[in-house]
Amino acid sequence: MFKNFPCTDDGQAITATGSSAVTAFAAAGAAFATDVMIDNPGPVDIYFRVGGVGVAATTASRRVPAGAQVVYEKGQATHIALLSAGANQGVVVAVGKGI
After folding, report:
1. Residue 90 domain-assigned?
2. Does residue 22 contact residue 58 with C-beta atoms inside 8 Å?
3. Do residues 80 and 65 lie in contact, with contact meaning Cβ atoms separated by under 8 Å?
4. DSSP class of residue 7?
5. Quick check: is 2 in a domain?
6. Residue 2 confidence (pLDDT) above 70
7. Greatest distance between any 2 Cα atoms in the chain
């Protein structure tokens, strides 16, 4: 069983840019985690989509508003694609189970 989002584990820092970029989930056991938490400290919105190595994010993908933190089910996805709505935006991604 995979753990919740513990405070003892760091997330994965990823930069969202103006073109969709794919990153593999870094956490050991990420394939067993069912959820993804995305922290977008702002100041621009970002968009994301999860899937396999070929996944791509567009402005029609899930939006994470500037300054927001969201949790979504990722299922068996092994990668995340991020897209910034403006300037490059640093985000933190963590995988786990439940909140």
Report:
1. yes
2. no
3. no
4. T
5. no
6. no
7. 38
Q: With beta carbons less than 8 A apart as the criterion, state whether 46 and 33 touch.
A: no
- Residues 40-63: pLDDT tens digits? 998 999 999 999 999 999 999 999
* For residue 43, cis peptide bond before it (omega within 30 degrees of 0): yes
- Is the residue at 71 inside a domain? yes
| Residue 86: CATH number of its domain | 2.60.120
Q: Which domain holds residue 57?
A: 12-96
**Side-by-side strand order, sheet with 79-84:** 21-24, 79-84, 46-51, 62-64
- Alpha-carbon distance of 76 to 91, in angstroms, equals 21
Residue 66: both structure tokens together: 């500037």
Q: Is residue 7 part of a domain?
A: no
Q: How many domains does the chain have?
A: 1
CA distance 22 to 83: 9
Q: What is the CA radius of gyration of the chain?
A: 12
